[in-house]
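Inverse folding, one chain.
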């Protein structure tokens, strides 16, 4: 049986987007009516907004909060508080503003409503650190804990990216150390693991995921709650020493030190490390945190933060001077080693890291300097996946050589008129995955579909009503389509490129003897967004299968056929380009298309008709009619 002690910290949490608007309600809910607003120097505008929302509840303003909560500043704010007769403070900002609110509450008992703009987490702790006469004192008291915390994702989203990264890793440190804290308990463990998952997801998604900032803020709240509930260990102590005695910046120092402090404690806290690794989706926790920092573009060395190498031993001495609970025993030599590695920016040697894991990590680390953040993210993610593919399948040298040969042949098969790599991507379904990802961002529009290898830039310009088949044999097809925006307004003068295969399933570029481009053209919509042309009914056809991709399909027992379709590429100023295909309902291979390109919404009637044709041209027997409305998105 696990024995534990847990003390809940009674705070009200309001979490969401635009929650700043609820500040007056929250003050009233506390039964308070005179508010002193505290805003950081650089958050004046937000402070003004808070005052405006508070309206008659706002009784005064103080914008002078400073780092480390100096008592002189608190005294100044206290005078303003007394003058205004405030019974509540509303603090908007980072750790300094929250610190000032706590200092005022501790002295006077006023209630606090805090709106954090960073991920520091101090808003949910009953701890106050103050400096007076150059001495720092820290106290913990239930009166210090803010009554209400309003987390507003919009507000935190204004935190610049670089600060968001270091502040988030600072929060991560609270959660990690909570798991191996001497006071650890199941409630806090649960919050810590959830914090780690949210923070990791937020950090990984910073450049692409619209929910990343919400993840970071949620993780920061949970991690801050851990910080307020259980004691911290070596990592926090070291950062405290480096900040207090060497003036290193708070959050960046946390960012550099965390993986190394974790590596130091790794063997002594294996269960905590296993759980952290699991939450991060990695094999080894310290190296995973290091890689996360690299991937997010955070600092990795104390050297870059301005610490002199000569100061490392003194820092180690200071950090062991007063004992405190920590899983691994603290020795001066041990800490000096840790600090040296952190100073140099080395990737920590993980716990039970295999030679392959070390190699993967080494390769990942070589991408740390990639300027372009997106490229850095893609490369650092691709390498471990490629390595894992080899490991999980116990790949032999001979097999990999075959893989290289296959890729080589794929490259060699490419020419001006043949793109074997596109075919490979298509037949592996990757093109369609990317297509679905991209298209899902505009749900009101006509779905897109893969471009395929047969598009040719600058097709022949054709007038409305033209016959793009130039009289080639086949079932006549009359196409009558309209282009609108997502509000159903016609898009006039849209440039529409169309292309398709002939009756035997060949595109013109596959037929060298053909005279000029055919079954492809560029047309423009009229004032009503309408476009008409004549062609022939597309038929199913095999993708080019005389190269390495064809060999792959045969080896897998797959057929090479595409379901019958007509290609469209639609461009109009002020609109997003749409590349798509319309598939013939009832056509073959709709459910086994070789390139996985069929989407239900794109399977449409190519209606069978007889009798007079739209342009009056005589047609003996059956002809087909395609009517369709494309909806395209506006840009911006
Ligand atoms: C096409 O539809 O033209 C196509 C798409 C992917 C691979 C091969 C052909
Ligand atoms: Fe095609």
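Residues assigned per position:
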């Amino acid at each position: 049986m696990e024995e534990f002690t847990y003390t809940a910290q009674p705070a009200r949490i309001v979490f969401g987007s635009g929650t700043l608007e609820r500040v007056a309600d929250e003050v009233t809910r506390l039964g308070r009516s005179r508010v002193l607003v505290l805003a950081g120097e650089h958050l004046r505008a937000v402070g003004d907004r808070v005052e405006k929302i508070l309206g008659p509840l706002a009784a005064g303003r103080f914008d002078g909060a400073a780092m480390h909560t100096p008592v002189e500043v608190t005294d100044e704010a206290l005078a303003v508080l007394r003058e205004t007769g405030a019974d509540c403070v509303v603090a908007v900002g980072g750790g300094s503003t929250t610190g000032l609110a706590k200092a005022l509450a501790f002295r006077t008992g006023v209630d606090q409503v805090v709106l954090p703009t960073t991920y520091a987490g101090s808003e949910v702790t009953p701890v106050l650190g103050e400096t007076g006469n150059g001495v720092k004192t820290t106290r913990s008291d239930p009166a210090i804990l803010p009554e209400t915390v309003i987390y507003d994702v919009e507000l935190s989203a204004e935190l610049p990216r670089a600060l968001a990264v270091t502040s988030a890793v600072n929060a991560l440190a609270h959660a990690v150390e909570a798991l191996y804290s001497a006071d650890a308990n199941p409630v806090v463990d649960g919050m810590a693991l959830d914090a780690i998952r949210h923070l990791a997801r937020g950090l990984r998604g910073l450049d692409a995921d619209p929910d990343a900032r919400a993840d970071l803020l949620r993780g920061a709240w949970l991690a801050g709650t851990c910080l307020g509930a259980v004691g911290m260990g070596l990592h926090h102590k070291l950062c405290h020493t480096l900040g207090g005695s060497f003036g290193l910046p708070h959050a960046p120092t946390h960012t550099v030190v965390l993986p190394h402090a974790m590596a130091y404690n790794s063997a002594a806290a294996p269960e905590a490390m296993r759980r952290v690794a699991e939450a991060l989706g990695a094999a080894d926790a310290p190296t995973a945190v290091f890689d996360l920092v690299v991937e997010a573009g955070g600092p990795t060395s104390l050297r870059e933060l301005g610490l002199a190498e000569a100061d490392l031993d003194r820092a180690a001495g200071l950090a062991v001077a007063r004992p405190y609970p920590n899983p691994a025993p603290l020795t001066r030599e041990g800490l000096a080693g840790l600090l040296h590695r952190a100073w140099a920016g080395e990737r920590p040697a993980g716990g039970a890291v295999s030679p392959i894991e070390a190699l993967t990590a080494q390769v990942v680390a070589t991408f740390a300097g990639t300027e372009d953040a997106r490229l850095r993210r893609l490369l650092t993610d691709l390498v471990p996946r490629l390595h894992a593919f080899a490991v999980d399948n116990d790949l032999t040298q001979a097999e990999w050589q075959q893989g290289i040969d296959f890729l080589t042949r794929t490259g060699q098969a490419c020419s001006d008129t043949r793109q074997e790599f596109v075919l490979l991507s298509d037949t592996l379904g990757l093109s369609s995955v990317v297509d679905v990802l991209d298209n899902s961002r505009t749900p009101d529009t006509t779905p897109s579909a893969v471009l395929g290898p047969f598009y040719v830039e600058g097709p022949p310009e054709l007038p409305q009503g033209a016959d793009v088949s130039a009289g080639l044999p086949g079932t006549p097809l009359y196409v009558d389509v309209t282009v609108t925006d997502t509000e159903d307004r016609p898009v006039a003068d849209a440039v529409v490129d169309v292309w398709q295969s002939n009756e035997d399933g060949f595109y013109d570029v596959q037929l060298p003897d053909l005279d000029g481009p055919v079954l492809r053209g560029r047309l423009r919509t009229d004032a009503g967004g309408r476009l008409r042309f004549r062609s022939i009914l597309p038929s199913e056809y095999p993708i080019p299968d005389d190269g390495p991709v064809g060999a792959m399909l045969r080896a897998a027992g797959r057929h090479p056929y595409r379901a019958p379709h007509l290609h469209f590429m639609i461009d109009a100023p002020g609109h997003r380009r749409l590349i798509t295909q319309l598939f013939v309902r009832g056509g073959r291979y709709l459910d086994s298309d070789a390139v996985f390109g069929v989407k239900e919404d794109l399977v449409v009637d190519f209606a069978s008709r007889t009798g007079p044709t739209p342009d009056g041209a005589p047609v003996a027997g059956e002809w087909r009619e395609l009517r369709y409305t494309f909806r395209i998105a506006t840009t911006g």
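The two ends are 59 Å apart (CA to CA). The mean pLDDT is 92.
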